[in-house]
Design goal:
heterodimer, A: mainly alpha, 4 helices, 70% helix, 0% strand, B: mainly alpha, Rna Polymerase Sigma Factor, Chain: A, Arc Repressor Mutant, subunit A, 2 domains
Chain lengths: 89, 246
């Protein structure tokens, strides 16, 4: 039987799907009986999930304008000569 | 094959336990799959429009990926200015390669790869960025990277269990602006290698394989760093919720 302390140590192995079948069983058995470890797992998942939703910093207007110019130049070059591949920068 | 067995067993275990009225179902095995820069029909439509020379499509593409690319660039170069430059160079390279892009990977993955290559080259040229393997092993003795042993009995049972949070689901936590701002700050304070891994994996949604390939590290090494970073971030959030309780 895994201890609570061990659960916190191997939780990433569990979340990453890197546990053997037997270890996963032991992990889940422990969770079934321990509300504190269930809370720990919930909090860990909430942490991971919210890291994936951190807001991106807004794009500065000058960057947006510069990108538009680059796109226009690229597009003009293609139109002028569709077979021409632009030089890599 | 083993996944199938695990899932079957999971079901039968639940079935046994659910006969007990006090039983609360354990959290299911992880479905922490997040939005990877994966192929989407949106991206495919964008690609068609881009190739047809539609400027609005490029605007939309830049809007969608710029922030993520900036976050990614910051992992490899040391200054904001360098990161901006790498991102802009990447967009130019994306345009140059657009006609030749064979769609073997998703648009997002392809753009990310271009950025990583550019950022690495730039780092080497400037001799300012260090390769991942040479980054300081600054995570030893990091007491937050494991749960404090004092919180357990000698037998390893919780004596100071996790403090409950108001927001224990990703959806409610994301809605908590203070907590999200704290996470952003804490991310920046992580030891460098932990930060790189956790941003790639959890913020940008890269797979373990993608991270290991890009950084040339083993899966086990990657997992240890990811574990430390996540453990520390959860601990920081716990401290945050504890201090806001009263």
């Amino acid at each position: 039987m895994l201890s609570c302390q061990e659960i916190t140590a191997v939780i990433t192995e569990y979340l990453e799907g890197r546990m053997s079948f037997a270890d996963r069983m032991r992990f889940q058995m422990h969770l079934g009986m321990c509300k504190h470890c269930r809370a720990y797992l919930r909090q860990m998942k909430a942490t991971i999930g919210s890291l994936g939703q951190l807001p991106d910093e807004p794009m500065p207007t000058d960057v947006r304008d510069e990108m538009r110019k680059r796109f226009a130049a690229w597009n003009d070059a293609r139109r002028a000569d569709p077979k021409k591949k632009p030089e890599p920068t | 094959m083993s996944t199938l067995v695990v899932s079957r067993t999971g079901l039968s275990l639940r079935a046994i336990f659910s006969r007990d009225p006090t039983w609360t179902a354990p959290a299911r095995p992880p479905r922490v799959k997040r939005e990877t820069p994966v192929a989407s029909s949106d991206d495919q439509q964008l690609l068609v429009r881009l190739r047809a020379g539609d400027g609005d499509a490029f605007d939309a593409l830049v809007e969608k990926y710029h922030g993520k690319l900036k976050r990614l660039a910051r992992l490899f170069v040391s200054t904001e200015a360098s990161a901006d430059e790498v991102v802009q160079d990447t967009w130019v390279a994306v345009l140059d390669g657009l006609d030749a892009f064979e769609e073997r990977s998703s648009l997002g993955t392809w753009i990310s790869r271009i950025l990583v290559n550019r950022a690495k080259t730039k780092g080497v040229r400037e001799a300012r960025s260090t390769p991942f393997s040479a980054m300081g092993d600054d995570d030893t003795g990091d007491e937050l990277a494991v749960v404090d042993a004092a919180r357990f009995s000698p037998a390893g049972k919780w004596t100071a269990p996790p403090l409950r949070w108001d927001d224990e689901t990703p959806a409610t936590l994301v809605a908590n602006q203070q907590a999200m701002a704290l996470l952003e700050v804490e991310l920046r304070q992580l030891p460098e290698r932990q930060r790189v891994i956790v941003v790639l994996r959890d913020t940008l949604g890269w797979t373990s394989d993608e991270v290991c390939t890009a950084l040339e590290i083993t899966e086990a090494n990657q997992r240890v760093l990811l574990h430390r970073a996540r453990t520390r971030l959860r601990a920081r959030l716990e401290a945050h919720f504890a201090s806001h309780e009263c």
